[in-house]
Amino acid sequence: MSTKIFGLYGDDDILMDAVKSLQKKGVKINEVYTPFPVHGLDKALGLKKTRISDLAFIYGAYGLILMSIVTWYMMIYDWPQDIGGKPSFTWGENVTAFAVPMFEMTVFFAAHFMCITYLLRSGLYPGAPTKNPDPRTTDDKFLVEIVSDDVDRLKEMFIDTGAEEVTVKRA
């Protein structure tokens, strides 16, 4: 029977010291809930680098390619214009005129698809079930979650590392 033990902390520096101390003692931390990003916490927990920056490049490239096709289609294929007696024969001759819209679509696609990807991946989309065990972590508290059966030892470890409150939830 697995049990969730939660340690509530009031300061991010105390949290970092507690995480490092728990890691040194061989305790596997399941999750940490914080009201803002804590620098160095990902390394202290041993989390791998995410691939979301790779997706940003792919989304941006998709926007650039799509806008290149749209500008070619509109200005060269569908409705070519003769401006000042100079016809537009190829897209390559006019690419500098399209630089700004192509850049804007690159940024637009990267930014919007990154937001959608983040919300879906983290489960924060509208209507998603809440995963946060303590609503105070959205304001000013930090929560460490550990899943274990050794409740008494972990309660003592949380208190030793400066936890303001220790909660046990049996599954």
TrEMBL record:
Keyword field: Membrane, Transmembrane, Transmembrane helix
Membrane-spanning residues: 55-75, 95-120
Name of the protein this chain belongs to: DUF3341 domain-containing protein
One Pfam short name: ActD
Keyword Membrane: yes
PANTHER family tied to this protein: LIPOPROTEIN-RELATED (PTHR40394), QUINOL:CYTOCHROME C OXIDOREDUCTASE MEMBRANE PROTEIN (PTHR40394:SF2)
InterPro entries: ActD
